[in-house]
Specification:
Layout: H1 6-9, H2 16-27, H3 29-34, H4 36-53, H5 57-70, H6 77-81, H7 88-99, H8 103-115, H9 122-134, H10 138-150, H11 157-169, H12 173-185, H13 192-204, H14 208-220, H15 227-239, H16 243-255, H17 262-274, H18 278-290, H19 298-303, H20 325-337, H21 341-353, H22 360-372, H23 376-388, H24 395-407, H25 411-423, H26 430-442, H27 446-458, H28 465-477, H29 481-493, H30 500-512, H31 516-528, H32 535-547, H33 551-563, H34 570-582, H35 586-598, H36 605-615, H37 620-632, H38 639-651, H39 655-667
Length: about 675
């Protein structure tokens, strides 16, 4: 009989039971005979052993808990363990503690057994690993597994599976791969379960190419992917925008006779609706109808633009709706994304009529959609419908409405909703305060913004980078750079680390005020804090330098960008060209223009503003050449371009050409200023 089998671990009353007695008596014969307390302990241990040996696990768990909780017989598991036969009862006790989710006791007992030179059975180790994983003690899981390996015991596929699961949950995918290689070395090969775990981990961190390689490895090993395998990859591809690949895996499932389930369809619907592929989403829903997840006619009801619910009363009669909450929420969200909010509301009402229980999530989707459309009144009506159905608005509901009011500058209404939120027993969150700070900040009411920071402090809510970012952004836009810097210092003092976006705000404000010294001070502070400068950072500084005539410094920074792995874009080139145009260096402007075209960076109308301005001194022929090149790129000239061209031709004495351009400007619908009116 194998050491790792269940029957080998059950204690037989006639052998192990007697072993316990002989163990006690060998310690102290006199004590065994005379101490009543000792006899009671012995009886309790015997009872626990008997319960385990007879497979009465539930009763044994209760009895063990009572022994340890009351502490009348034993003050701790260690004391109980010191009075039992070893290794038989120790192993069963470890298994029982693991099953009972007494993790501290189980891990302590495991350590004690190992110190005593005992190696727990495969059954007990697997149970311990499973309980550790279920309780999210992933590091401890890997530590126990490593100790099992060190003991010379060969773990089975179950133990490896739990170790792989722990590694993936810790996002240590390299460890996951290492464990799978060890499985191969041990001659068992990774299981489909193990592959699915690592595939899930890779997809979660969007390493979809590596996930595909791992899937191909599965196929090469002649392993049969299951529904979980395919669902993991379909969801992974949908989340990175690989819709075609996801649809390809769905077709592969059909070819391999692997059944699609709700998880499959939900992932596809979410991906398709999120990317605006409504027609493809319709096809998936049609397939769901054919598979019995939706009643016949449901699809036409959802997508028929002329349907208002009339005549659809019998649509669902006697037909089971097998979709879950996630499915209909994805469907509602998809309809809202394409602007069909009223149809989404109609679909939800029809689902509710036919026994589908609505959720707060479904109503929050509608509230958010109406707010996105700018229809706050309908958003509020939706919250009222929500309450009529016995669903209390939650923080997401309130925060959505509050955020919209703040966005539109209706901060008084926003505060009214905050009070209502509190009255309903929902505490304001950091997101609530962030909206208020942003709303009042945009109106220039900075005293109120600081009051909100104080309120957050009193409520025990720690402001985050968005809280401070909103305030700093508003202060910068209001040209209150000193105040913005004070907020930055407060932010750092409270242990909230600024990000690149916040430094970019401060650099932008400094440049707009021509305070380049301050701009570069913030830039240096940013780098010293270990925050990488972004493309926005460099573009802002280059633009600021160019506007202030410091084009040489701007170009030095331009060259520095590439070395930092930050590739210039059209905004970078526009800023540099503009700087050289102001310095009246037409040749340099044209060189930069040619360079950006060679690099495949498409010029914009903004590129031609400084170019045409710079070409004025070269004469109208050069200007017109640049103008024609702009038209060939299908770029529509704006007021600035027309004004420059008209003025130059008029100045050159070519009034007819100037008048022709003026008429062209009018025909194009470009506003004329007073000078060209």
């Amino acid at each position: 009989m194998g050491f790792g089998t269940r029957s080998a671990l059950r204690l037989r009353p006639n052998s192990h039971f007697n072993n316990s007695i002989s163990f006690f008596c060998s310690q102290s014969l006199t004590l065994c005979e005379s101490d009543p307390q000792y006899q009671k302990r012995l009886q309790k241990v015997q009872k626990l052993e008997t319960l385990i040996s007879r497979g009465r696990t539930i009763t044994a768990r209760r009895f063990l808990r009572s022994l340890l909780l009351t502490k009348t017989a034993f003050s701790s598991l260690s004391e109980l363990h010191a009075h039992v036969s070893k290794p038989f009862f120790s192993d069963n006790l470890l298994w029982l503690c693991s099953v009972s989710k007494m993790l501290d006791e189980a891990t302590d007992l495991y350590s004690t057994m190992r110190k005593d030179g005992f190696v727990p059975s495969t059954r007990s180790v697997n149970r311990l690993l499973r309980t550790l994983v279920d309780s999210r003690h992933f590091e401890k899981t890997l530590a126990v597994f490593a100790d099992v390996i060190d003991s010379g015991t060969r773990p089975d596929a179950v133990a490896y599976g739990k170790a792989v699961q722990a590694a993936v949950m810790l996002k240590d995918l390299d460890k996951g791969f290492e464990l799978m290689k060890s499985m191969v070395k041990d001659g068992m090969g990774p299981s489909v379960f193990a592959y699915n775990l690592v595939l899930g981990g890779l997809c979660k961190v969007r390493r979809i190419k590596d996930a595909r390689k791992l899937f191909d490895e599965m196929i090469q090993r002649n392993m049969v992917p299951n529904t979980v395998t395919y669902n993991t990859l379909i969801d992974g591809y949908c989340k990175v925008g690989g819709i075609e690949e996801a649809l390809g895996f769905k077709e592969r499932m059909k070819e391999q006779n692997v059944e699609c389930n709700l998880v499959t369809y939900n992932s596809l619907l979410n991906g398709l609706c999120g990317s605006g592929r409504v027609d493809d989403a319709r096809e998936v829903l049609l397939e769901m109808e054919g598979s019995g997840f939706l009643p016949g006619g449901f699809l036409s009801f959802v997508f028929d633009d002329h349907s208002n619910g009339a005549g659809d009363d019998g649509l669902f009669d006697g037909k089971e709706i097998r979709i879950d909450e996630r499915t209909y929420c994805i469907l509602l969200n998809g309809l809202c994304r394409v602007g069909r909010i009223e149809k989404a509301e109609e679909v939800l009402a029809k689902l509710v009529e036919n026994g589908v229980t609505p959720s707060k999530i479904s109503y929050n989707i509608l509230v958010n959609a109406y707010c996105q459309e700018g229809d706050v009144k309908k958003a509020i009506l939706t919250t009222e419908q929500m309450e009529e159905r016995g669903l209390e608005p939650n923080r997401i509901t309130f925060n959505t409405v509050i955020s919209k009011f703040c966005e539109t500058g209706e901060v008084d209404h926003a505060e009214t909703w905050v009070r209502r939120m509190v009255e309903k027993g929902v505490s304001p969150t950091v997101e609530t305060y962030n909206s208020l700070i942003n709303g009042y900040g945009q109106k220039g009411h900075f005293v109120r913004c600081f009051e909100f920071l104080d309120e957050m402090d009193k409520a025990g809510i720690k402001p985050n980078v968005i809280s401070y970012g909103s305030l700093i952004n508003c202060l910068c836009k209001d040209r209150k750079l000193i105040d913005a810097e004070i907020v930055l210092a407060d932010m750092i003092g409270r242990g909230v680390s600024p990000n690149a976006e916040i430094y970019n705000m401060l650099i932008e404000a400094s440049c707009s005020l021509s305070k380049l010294k301050d701009a570069f001070r913030f830039f240096d502070e940013m780098i010293q804090s270990g925050i990488d400068a972004t493309l926005v950072t460099y573009n802002t500084l280059i633009n600021g330098l160019g506007r202030n005539g410091r084009v040489k410094k701007a170009e030095d920074l331009f060259l520095q960008m590439a070395g930092k792995g930050c590739n210039p874009d059209v905004i970078t080139y526009n800023s540099l060209i503009s700087g050289y145009a102001k310095s009246v260096n037409t040749q340099k402007c044209l060189e930069l223009y040619d360079k950006m075209k060679i690099l495949g960076i498409k010029p914009t109308v903004g590129t031609f503003h400084p170019l045409i301005y710079a070409c004025r001194k070269e004469g109208v022929v050069t200007m017109d050449k640049m103008f024609q090149e702009m038209l060939q790129m299908d770029l529509v000239p704006d007021q600035f371009v027309y004004n420059e061209m008209i003025y130059s031709y008029a100045e050159d004495g070519n009034v007819m050409k100037a008048m022709s351009l003026h008429q062209q400007m009018v025909d194009q619908g470009v506003d004329c200023d007073k000078g060209n009116g």
